[in-house]
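EI: anyone free to look at a 76-residue chain?
SC: sure, send it
EI:
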Amino acid sequence: MGAMKILLIFCLGLAGCALRPAWHWERPGADAADYRRDEIACKQQSYEGADGAVTQAQVRRMQRCLENRGWRKVAN
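SC: here you go
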């Protein structure tokens, strides 16, 4: 029974690592509130008309919007 608990904890830890993105967005001089405001604006612009299903093209459009606002992807 002890080995099963260890295996379960290991698997949960591994799953948690898999859920964390390998990158994040940064903009010099910006804080989390600035990112959240720009993220919301870009999502509204990029996903307008989406019926719940988001396409890769829309995701790329949203990321370009953030880049146009000065944000850059940075590895964790």
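EI: DSSP finds three helices and two strands in the chain.
SC: 👍
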